[in-house]
Structures are given as structure tokens and as C-alpha cells.
Here is the input.
Amino acid sequence: MGLFDSLLGRSTPPEANLDALFAVPQAALSLQADGFTPTGSGAVCYRPTEGGAFSGTEDEIEKLVATGGGPRIERSVDRFGFRWLTVTRTDTDISGLVTDLHAINSSLADAGFGSALLCSTVIFHTSEQKPFALVYLYKRGTFYPFAPLADDRRDNALELQVRGVVGKDVTVESDLSKWLAIWGAPGLG
Amino acid sequence: MARTRFRSDSGLTLRMGGVSLGLGALYVAFGALLLTQTSLGAFGIVIVLGLAWGQWYFSDSLALKSMGAKIVEPEQAPELHAMIDRLCALADMPKPRVAVAVTDMPNAFATGRTPKHSSVCVTTGIMQRLDADELEGVLAHELSHVANRDVTVMTVASSLGLLAGFITRWGMYAGNIFGSRNNKNSGAVFLVVFLVSMVVYFVSFILTRALSRYRELSADRSGAYLTGRPSKLSSALVKISGEMARIPNKDLREGQAISAFFFAPAINREAIGALMSTHPPLQQRLDQLAAVSAELSEQG
Here is the structure.
């Protein structure tokens, strides 16, 4: 968004960066080497747009991803009105999961709703079976870890540990204030 | 190739550009007159630009103080912060400071010199009256003001108009300041400067108000595209204007001073007609939001 656009009052929601998501399998390998396990579950979070075009696109996406005995796909809404499409694969194949997530976000972008994409999560477990997510921010093209505890608190120590592990594989969001808390995200307890 | 559904309103952009060019030309002419024809015109310009700069630089703390608003931390208003966090992540913009004013008047405003030094303020009245989706629509509108740098634009737009206003009001008492460079025709030159100031003041007032209305429409538009729910913003507007009409005039005017970013403190606010208003009529805003909504539901 240029200065000129903002001066003319035309500031638009930025488009999503979709491709960086394909760096996740590499990060998953590093995490596995450190004792974290992928759960085979991940989600795309977006702001539902009103109107028929958007709900039509959503229906098509579910059909597309779930074809031919594909992964389980679930729709849910969090308390802020954002929609989560959760994909769960039984084979915990991270590359396959990323392909499914990419199918969702690229379908939304192709239909003109790329600016509605907020983030994607890929869920991992610690060795004590505590869940945490590697979160991808579509607008910034960066990743950060999110590890919720009870009562809307975050396990910052675990988050910083994960940042160190995946730092070489993916672009980690350097501005800590952008590490958005995604309370109520599916798969995170 | 991903496509975007955002369409900027070229008519609106054109009108905004026209108004800005008109103001620019007016100010250049007025400034030239003051610099060439009067002895202390340059002094006046420097003072007014200094005042305008101060108003711009301290805009957020000034506005928050005048509304009695307090900055709230995430622990004090977790839901409000979370809502703004998500909108800022969607829009990829720095998060402004969040403030709450304890007053029953339903209102919200954004101030600050740059997106990094800005604040968004909501009143307790608006939080009680709107549901979460409507409040989100209002916040998206305010964040669009921040992204569009409306405080900067309106400060610049009103700067020399302010000086014209001062000369119109106080010039009679300080005629010699704006008198001629050579003392021969002092009276005649002052009369010309005085009359020109009056005209500049009036024209710039009408133009800045028009610019303010266009920027409200822009913020509605950008905000609606950000949340993807123009209808929620519409219902918030209907609720608030219904409530606003029942509030006594004094409060209503205070609210307008805030929403106009204090751009002309010397303005006499008694005649508020369509031309003078800082905000477009409700119906025009609703019509635009309905058009955005129709556009978002287009198939294919």
C-alpha cells in the first residue's frame, strides 16, 4: 500500500502471500529432530465475507479438499467471528497437509477473497503431549509459534524454544508484537 | 493469478483530487499575497504553520485528553484488544494504542500523526449499544482513517484557512501588522488583505468540509472491504445516528469537534448545513455500503 493510495483514501487490505507455506515440511523435520511430533492437523483461518459468492466458494473448497477419501475437513467459528477450516490427516503427512491447506487458501484467493485470509496453523505436540501451533501470517509472509496455556495465557518459554528450532527453515516474524494470540483456534486444547 | 475484489471509487478519488488541488491553488495564491503585499505576513504564516504542526504532532494526546479517554492495556480490555489485533493482522498495519472514554455518547475516533503514533478510542456508550460485529465494523472504519493518514491530510488542508480565519476575526485590531510594506497605502492594502482573507476563509472552509466528507466515505469503503461485512457497518451507523439524534446539542457538537480532528477551532459551528457538515449524510453512506455489499457477493 503506497503513500499515494493512503493520501487518496484508497488503502486496501493487502493480498495474501501463499507460497511461503511450502517451507513448513522442512521446519517439521527440524521440530521432529527435537522431539516434537506433528499431529497431521492444520487449519486455515479467514474472515468470512457476507454474500452468496463467498459461501459458494466455501462449499466448493470443502468438496475439493475432501474428494476421493481425502482428509477430514471441519468448519468452525471462533468467538471473534473468524472461520476456521480444519484439515485432519490420519497419516500425519506434513507435505500432504500443506498441499491441502494451499488448496484452501488458493481457492479463496482465486475467487478474489485473498485479503480475507488471516493465518494458517499446523499443529504439533510436545513430548508431554501439549499442543502448540506453527502459525503462518498470510499478510506478512512470516511464521511464529503459538503455545496456549489455560486461562488465555501463553507458554512463552516453549514459543521461544520453537522459534530457535525452526529459525533456519522458515522466516520467523521478528516483531514479537505481531505474534497474534489466536485463542480458541481448533486443535489447541 | 489471484484477483482482488477491491474497487476504488474513481469518482470519489477524482472529487477528492479536485478539492485538494483547489485548496492548494487557493493557499498558494493567499500565501503569495501575504508574502508580497504585507510586512508581517510571513510571520503570521510561520506562526500558523507552527500551530498546525503542534496540533498535528500532539493530535493523539490532545484528542484523548479532550474526550477524557484513558489508554487501556490488553489486560483491562482483552476482547477489544483482540478484535483490534486481528484487524491489524488482516490489514498488516501497526497496532494503534487503544483508549476508552467513559461517556454515554456513542462514538469512536482515531487520531495520531502517523500510523505508528496513533490511537483508536471508543466510548463506553458505543460498546454498550453495538454488538461485536458492528463494533468491529466501526473499528475497521477508524483503522482506515489511520491507514489513510486522515489527521495529516486534514491538518494540511486546514492550515492556511486557519490563518485566513484569524485575519478575518482579529485583523481589525491588528491592521498594522498586515499593513503594507511601504507605509503609503497601508489602509487600502489592509482592506484588500482583509477581504481576501474573508473569501479564502469561506472557500477553504467549504472545501475542507467537503474533503472531510469524502474521507469519511473512503474510510467507510476501506473499512467495509477489510471486514468483508459492509452490512454490519451500516447497521452500526443506523444505530448510532438514531442514538445521536437524542443526545443534547452540546455533546453532539463536542463529538463533531473531535471527528473533524480539530481542524478549525475558530469556526463558528452554528450553521451546520449539508455544505458545512464534516460527515456525509447517513443515506449516502448506507448507499455506498450497499453497493460494496452487492459487489462482494458477485459470482465468479
